[in-house]
Amino acid sequence: MALLNSSDYRVAAKRRLPKGLFEYIDRGTEAELAMDDIRRSLDAIKFRPSVLTGHSSSDMTVSLFDRTYPAPLIIAPTALAGLVSHDGETKLARIAGRLGIPFCVSTQSVTAIDDIRKGAPDAELWLQLYVWRNRDLTWGLLDRARNSGVSTLVITADTPLSPKRDYNQRNGFSVPFVPSVRGICDIASRPGWLCSVMLRYLMTTGMPTYAHYPAEFKTAITRAAIAEDVKIESAISWDDIAEIQKRWTGRIIIKGVLSVDDAIKARALGIDGIVVSAHGGRNFDVAEAPADVLPDIVKAVGDQMIVMADSGIRRGSDALKYLALGADAVMIGRLPLYGLAAGGEQGAQDILTMIIDEMQSNLVFAGAKDIDAFRRAGIA
């Protein structure tokens, strides 16, 4: 069956992946209200087109920081992309390199950033950072990123705790994998994934886990000793951001901003950019939707720092809606994972190309010759 839209890819991913892994990627938190709110906020936005504009294509080139990109997209950091497809993070990095856009590697990736660099030498890599309780381990990860040629650090600020996701417990899903009857039956029900992903790891690098965590975390005997060290710091503050600024010479972006006050604080600290994000509805179930707060944030700081947005993008038109509200670029997370699951590296490239094509066609229908003209036209 031809995969023609994001829903098709999602269905294909659901068929391919074990239930526990698919729901970890696909679902939200608690009552999953935030996911509905994000969808509602985007669906409510309409464009007012201009007709007879005399052009059949639009320029989507965008400048971010000191570079120019062919499209205003960044592949967002997503945990465990390497479980969706073998060596999934490296595949995403190669795709990003071919498309000419950045790929943001997750702290919780299955492949370490230095190994991703070896597999994708031409990609522009960013690193998403969770600050661990053990700061020395955190600083060590920054060193690895710097040595791997990472240009930009994306600090996730909206995850002080592990979110409440009941379905993970019901599905017996955890990392590192803890064998259970439910979990083993789930994996066995997906023999294609079992053979092409899990068994490949077991025959080469061993049981997959978070690659940036210390080696001690990979074995059950020593995991308890290191578990506290690599817990996400629940008391992270602006002082921590200032400390990171002293240790990181590249660009710094703060991800998870939903208030004007926090955006202004970031600007005052000299942060290079922010991502207006609700974490795809996966963290705080009663948080405001990014589309509802983005215009005020752009008005407050948009002329002094790069403002990006994410959460809930399913079509190219969704990405354009965030751009119309003032975002300089958008991050896309779940869709590349659906693509990886459905068709490996080619599948992920196809779904990202599909989104870019949809953005292009919607710009033409809107009568905008480029992104700036589209923003000036505004929304209906």
Provide structural commentary.
This protein has helices spanning 6-16, 19-26, 33-43, 81-84, 88-99, 113-119, 135-147, 166-171, 181-188, 191-204, 220-227, 238-247, 260-268, 290-301, 316-324, 334-366, 371-377, and strands at residues 62-64, 67-69, 73-75, 103-105, 125-129, 152-156, 251-257, 273-276, 306-309, 329-332. By secondary structure, the chain is α/β, with parallel strands linked by helices. The chain has two domains: 6-164 and 232-377, TIM Barrel (Alpha-Beta Barrel); 167-227, no CATH class. The longest helix has 33 residues, at 334-366. The two termini are 36 Å apart. It is an enzyme of class 1 (oxidoreductase). This is Alpha-hydroxy acid oxidase. GO terms for molecular function: oxidoreductase activity.
Low-confidence stretches: none
Distance between the termini: 36 Å
Q: Which CATH class of the largest domain is shown?
A: Alpha Beta
**CATH topology description of the largest domain:** TIM Barrel
Number of strands: 10
Per CATH, the architecture of the largest domain is: Alpha-Beta Barrel
Any idea what the shape is? globular
